[in-house]
Every structure is written in structure tokens, then in C-alpha cells.
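As a point of orientation, let us examine one representative protein, giving the amino acid sequence and C-alpha cells.
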Amino acid sequence: MNDLEEGRLPPRFTISPQELIRVIEERDRKWVDNLGGVSALVYALRSHPQHGLSNEQIFAGLQPRIDFYGPNKFKYPPPKSFVRLLYEAFHDVTIIILSIAAIISLIIGSAIEDNRKHYGYLEGIAIVLVVFIVVLVQALIDRQKEKKFRQLNSVKDNYAVQVIRASSAVSVNADQILVGDVIKLAAGDKVPADAILIQGSAFKTNESAMTGEPIDIHKQPDADIFLLSGTTVSEGVGYALVVAVGERSQWGVILKGLIVEPENTPLQERLDRLAWSIGKLGILFAVLTFLVSLIRWIVDSKRSNVWEWESVLDFFIDAVTIVVVAIPEGLPLAITLGLAFAMRKMMKDNNLVRRLEACETMGSATQLNADKTGTLTQNRMTVVEANWTGPQVTYDETLSPAPDMLSAKYRHILSVNMAVNTQANLQYNASGTVDHLGNKTECALLQLVNQWQTDYRKIRNEHDIFRVYMFDSTKKSMSTAESLSDGTIRLHTKGAPEMVINHCSYRLEADGETHTKIDDHTRAQILGYVKGMASRGLRTLLLAYRDINHDRSDEAFWECAPDTDLTYIGVVGIKDPIRPETREAVRQLKEAGVTVRMVTGDNPLTAKFIAKEAGILDDDGIVMEGPEFRSMSQSELEKKALKIQVLARSTPNDKLLLVRQQKKLGEVTSVTGDGTNDGPALKEADVGFALGIAGTEIAKEACDIVILDDNIQSMTKAVLWGRNVYQSIRKFLQFQLVVNVVAVSLNFISACAGQELPLGAVPLLWVNMIMDSMGALALATEPPRPELLQRKPFGRRAPLINRAMYRNIIGMSIYQLIVSLILQYAGADIFGLECASADDCTARDLEIRSIIFNVFVFMQIGSEFNSRRITSKNVFAGIQHSILFIVIITITVLVQVALMIGVGDTRVGDSIGIGRINGAAWGTSLVLGALAVPWGFLVRCVPLEWCYGPTDEDPTEMSKLEKLIHVPKRKPPVAPDPSESSGSDSSKVTGTDETELSTDHQAKDVDDVPHPVGLSPSLVRLRVFVHAVAFVNVVSRGKMSPPETL
């Protein structure tokens, strides 16, 4: 390894691994020829084309070869330790600030005697507990999803490979393959590493894992000799020289480039904007509080001629408290709970969420760019139409026409023709799936034979094959001759109908015995059937046969297939059919406002019909080809990127360019795919879906969500759950901000009036942490409603708090604020409470504050019910299905009752501001809490056009109220430039290969933490300042007990 590190080659090896990687990447056949051909390359790697690695090398040990060229293993990053996951979960600005505040609170609460007597340290303990819960839950979720994903890929690399070593064929695991090994490959084998073909017979590979299309590529020593790792052998047998393994193979290079850190999601961007807005509002109220208090102090001090300068510090502390109270500290827990609940439920719907934020991002998705092969279709060629004896036959999912349509003899002749005149095979798996080995078109014929309750393998075994005439590109046909029991030779032929029909003289009738002469009219009729099938995007084959009585020893006669005077059997139409659930899934996604688009490498005609069959292409939809798309100017891309419904003949670069352009236009994009070619686009999109069964390891590494059952319907469920998560976060924000608005307003009014704060630090902490946590759990665990798919997606520009939420928050805050102020200033008279003496009103004030606290809590419980719906007036709709919500509400009530009764009569209660209340106060609390529900109904009756705030559909739309009071017109939100956030330049898409695109991501430093998308550094600094200023409030607790929200 020292020689390699110093740039020198060991004497035993004359070609560097980097040179071999370049040869494979560039398909540099000229370099191979200049070296002296494939044989010279074999010897240069100290191997032998027939004998493989020598006995001497094996005996001496293969470690030097492994050290120099590497093992055939991909080194996934080791799973993060639980401590590391805890650290990453803790690595959040809000969590860190809360933790620092908790430490300071614990120090002050414990060190200062007066605070210690009043249990001032309880605040710090409570904050530490909440931080611990959030961090622990997040770390456990991350570990679980990582474990599931590694289990999914663990079985993929465990398969056997035939290797020639010391002149013997041995079977070894794929991870034991070395550079210089000569491997034997046959139909159905997976290529374990990058290799160069030494020799082969009718050797073809299927590179759909790399290109996405089921096209067989012919490989031969004098033409295309390059075999790519991860592809499969579709036909023939061959021997190949391994030249690149593991991370140095094309498979490994692409996979390595996809392991990067994710970008911010649309929700994270909205939360950043919300934090900034709340910070500005909190600072505004804080400045007003300080100025009003300062003016009041100046006036009072002037009158009394006593200047108590310590009061100015108290005013500043009150102002900072306003800022702290404005920040919804329970939001991180609410988001964590909501996403965790959705992730577990989505797993039951066969969606393995690899990136937790993808749960909510999918709810905002506006664009779905779907790969055709394997996603919309079944990735297997299937007979879907046929013309046997005249009438057109369309097959259903059983591939069986009406039983009385074909006679047993006719079907027997047809089955033998399809079984013996093919080289492919079917492999039935324990899971019930069928793998196609060999030519996909032939596999479609074999599957039709098996669906007719006839085993094609049994037919092959029972029939004596005389000669096989492989596909002739001139005749566009293939033939197989078999010997019948009476000595007759029967020639079975299949091929292009327009060619083979000219060699047909007869037509077999439905009884399987009668032969009718074919005339020009019949030929034209058959070709009409063929043209109709082709116009529907089907691949057509004509099946025919001929019985021949001729001397078998006549080599001149049998040298070429005697395919004249054939008897026409029928024509079959074959295609890769769409999945049964595709059309319904597309319909649901369209109804949900998601634009579904097909991106495929197939020809436009086939793509167009598949898209129409799937319900993607409308009558006026745009079908465009990749070359035209990639040659468009930027202005043309902006006009067409969202209007294209089918992008045919596209390359992986085209898909990546399309995704980047959509993101630049502000769309939230999602991509589906199963092949290696889909990797870059899957990574670039906001949400990438990979198929769990058919998907390659690279596709699954690049994606955000793995569809475990390969069912496109699962994406519809992902959209539903994503919208439910987003809606749950909105519900919690509506609930949380009511608490914050009322608390800020109470503190502002009380501070300006020179009154003692109505809620003590611990009671307010109880509301902010315990009640909000229970509220988050209650609202986040509600099941999704099907109606969520009937609305448009939120998109990237939709506001986090819309007009309906503003209406509800303001309306509920008015109710709670009025009730709290009445209790603060008139509570003593209402409940008949009096001071113990003229100079001692401590007990009365404690009871008033306790009543306010209890009423405040029960109003929040009523607010939770109101928060179940944002626009709908019936907040109890579907509550019978939300058992967990009811249970949590019940627990919340019981916990509150236990707190008031258990702590109210103790010295602890007196110290923290919670005392005992009478029966009238309990009844008042229940009634005022219950009245919050009908009040919420009245609030939702207010027309939205007479309310403040942006709408989801058009954030710039101004309401009648806003126009009436001349509110400045809102500016449209600017979508972030994806080229800046992704770390790659979209201008480099055209003209680069797939490897370059995927490895662009390596330019990212996974340890860097980028600024929130859409926020300038100055805004980020101001946002951090808003959080940090909360520390001053903690320091002040040695002198007073302001409301605490940290």
C-alpha cells in the first residue's frame, strides 16, 4: 500500500486501478486495442483467459491484489452510535438555548436562598426533562429507520459467482471477486463487478439497472466488450475479465456519490420564517413594554422625588420576558412527535421513511416525475392482445381468452411453437414473483403458455429439437425445427409480421386441423390487425409453422431455415403493461393537485400510449423528447418545465435538469425510480421514492422513502400522511400561539399597568411545557382524513400560518384575554374573596392567581378541541376515530386536577403560586373552558374575506379588511435557488455523464451546517439574538418571578 500511496506500481502489477476505472468510464476500446487486445490486458493483470488466476498466486495469497485493486465490497459509512445520534438531535439552536437557560436557571435557583425556598430550581429541572425527551425520541427514531434500511440492503449483495481459478470453475460469493478474476456468466446472472468480455456466445446484457429501460445490449469481443457491475445477463454465455471492483466500479462510484447530507425541507424553511416573524413581534412588544414602563416610572419618580434605579432593570427584565413568552418552545417536541407518529404509520402502509422530514415534505409536493419502467409499469413484457384465427383477442390479467374460443389442438400447436422456439426461461421465487431470464419478449410468450396451465419446460423436454436457427436480422425472424414421432420435421417460426406474413401460404383455423389458403386480402387484413396493435404502442410478433418431409442428411437444405409456405397461427401484441393500481393512483394524485409526469427513455409513441393508459396524458398535454428538452434556452425551460406531461427519449441528465428547473420555479418536487440512472434525480428532488423490491441499492441510497411493496398506490398514502403531518403541525401552532398571544398580552398589560404578573413562573412553565406537550401529542396522533386529498398541495410558497389560522388565533385569544383580565381585576368581587387584613392580601391574591391559572388551563383544553379543525365548523367530526386524542385530553384533565388538589394545600404550592380554590372556582373553570368551543364556532363563522392574513392559494391576495385599513400589499415569497442549496451548478447538467452528476454531491461537506434556506446571514444573526436575549430573563429570577416559557 505504501507503493500505491507514493504513486509507484508494484512490480507484479503494471496497470493502475485508476487507469482501469477510466477505461470503463470512457468505454475506451482504443486503449485496449493499443495494449494488444483483451488477451494482453488479461496477462497484464497476471491472469489467464482460460485458466484464470494461477495456483501459485492463490497459494501465495491474494492479499497483495486486494490491497492494490481493492475488495469487491462497498464500505457503507458505519452506523452512527447512539451517542452520536443523541448529539445530532441535540445539535439544534432552540434545544441548545433551552439547555443553557436550564443550566443558568438551576444555578440561580439553587444558589440564591430566596429562590431556593420558593423552589426556583424546578424550572431548570422541567426544561432539562423536556429537552431530554425531545433528544431521546429523535435519536431513537433515527436509529430505528437506519436499522430498517440496512436490513433492506443486507441481502442484496449475497449471491454466488462462477469463477475460473487454477483452471477450475469454482463458486464464490460476489464479495470475494478480485480484479484479474475470469468469471463465467450465463443468462440470469448478475454482473458482480466491472468487467471486459473475453469471449461469448449470443451474449447480451440487460442494463435497465443503469439506463432504466429493459433493452438487451449485445456484447461481443469485436464490438462492445464492456460489462457494468449491477447489470444482468439476459442471453447467452460468456467469460469476462474483472477490471474494477467495489467502490472503484461504476456501481460503487455512483453509490458513494449519493451519501450526502439532506437539504432543508419546505416546512423547515417556513419554520425559519415563522421564528423570524415571531421574533420581530416579540421585540416590538418588548420595546413598547419597556418604553411605557419607563415613562410611568419617570412620572411617578418625579412626583415622589424618589428615583429607584433598580426598577429600570426590572422593566428591562419584563421586556425580555415578553420576547421569551412569544417563542413557542413546545414546537420542536410537536414536530418530533408528529413526524415519529407518521413514520410508524407509514411503515404499515409499506413506506419506509429514510429521512424523517420527508413525511411532511410529501404533503407539500406539487410535482411528481415518475419513471415509466418499474414504477408505472410492471417492468416485464406481457402479451396483452392477439389475433389467432381472425377475431381480435384482448387478454385480461389472467392472460386467458374465453375457453371456448380456441380448440385444445389449436392451443397445443400454439403452446409448442412458443415453448420450443425460445431460448428464455422463467424463474419462480418463493415470494410468488417471477423473474424473466433472457429475452423479455420470449419470456412474455412463455408466461402466456404457463397461464394456459401448461408447463413450457415440460413441453421442451417432451419434444426432440432437430435444429435451432437463431434470430436473422435480414429475415427478422427466428426458427426452431423439431422431430415429430412420424419422422416429419416441424419448423416453428416467429418474427416481424410484415416480413413473415409474406412467407405464409396457409392459415390454421380454430379447430387446429383445417388449413385455409391465404390470399392478398387475408394478408392485408392480418397486417391491418398488426398496424392497429402497433398504433397502440405494442410490439408485435407473428407465429407460424411448417411440416417438412425431407432428408435430414441434406445439409445444404437444412443450412438455412426453410421458412417458406408457412402456416399462419396468429399475431401477438406485447408490451410492458402498467400496474393495475397505477391509473387509480394517478387519478387520486391529480385530484390532490399533484401534477403527475412520465419521464422515460422509451420512444414517444409507446410513452404516449402508456401515459394515456395511466391517465397521465390529457388530450392537450405536451409530449416532448429529451434532445429537444435539453437544447431549450432558460426562458423556454421556465415556460415548458411545468407543462410537459411526457418526457420521452430522456437521459438521466434530462430528469435531473427537469427537477432542478421545477425547484427553481418554486415547486416542491418528488421523483420515483428504481434504477441506478434515477439516483441523481432522486437525491436532488425534495422527496425521492425508490422501489424496495425491484429497486437497486443506489436508488434506495439516494431516495427519501422506500416503497416496500413496489406499489405506486403507496405514494398516494405518503401524500395523505404528509398532508396530515403538515396539518397537525398547523393545528398545534394554532393551539400554541393562542397560549403565547394571551401570555404576551397579559404580561404587556400588567407590566404597563404596574400590576403583579397574573401567572407565576412555574404555572406558566406548566402550561407551556406540560400542557403544550400533551396538546402536541393529542393533535399529532390524529389519523389522516381522506378529505386532505381533495385540496391543493401546500407548495413551497404557502404560508405556515394562513388567514383562517390568523382568524382563529386572534378570535380565541380575545376570548381568553377578556376572561383572564376580568378574573385579574374583578375576580375578588366575583368570588367574594377578601384580604385577611388591611395590610395582608397574600392569601386572596394567591387564590385569584390560582383561579386564573386553572381557568387558563381549562381554556387551553377547549382550545385543543377547536384546533382539531382550522376551517371546518364541526370540531367534533371524526372524533370517534381519534381514540388517542380523547385519552390524552382525559389524562390532561386528571393531571391538572391532581396538580391543583395535590399541590394547592402545600407549602410548595404557596411558593410557586398555586393555591387551593373553592367549588365555585372549579365550576367556573369547567364552564369557561367548555365555552371556548362554542366561541370557536362563532369565530369560524366570520368570513375569511374580512380577516387578516395570507391564503394558501395566493399569499399575495389581500382581504377586504386589509384593503379597508390599507395594509401594505404582501410581496410574493421568493423560492430559494436550488443550484445554490444543492451545491451543484445546474448549468453543468447538459453534456455531463451520470457519474459526474452523481459525484457532484461529494463537493458538500457533510459536517457543515448551512444557513436556513431563504434567510440572509443578518436575519439568522437577529433570530439567534432573539433566542439568546431570553437568558437575561433567567438571570433576573433572583429578584422576581416573571412568567417563564423556556
Observations:
- The longest strand covers residues 194-206.
- The domain at 265-342+719-781+800-833+842-946 is CATH 1.20.1110.10 (Calcium-transporting ATPase, transmembrane domain).
- The chain has four domains: 1-74+157-258, 265-342+719-781+800-833+842-946, 351-377+579-710, 384-572.
- Residues 1-10, 152-156, 975-1046 have pLDDT under 50 and may be disordered.
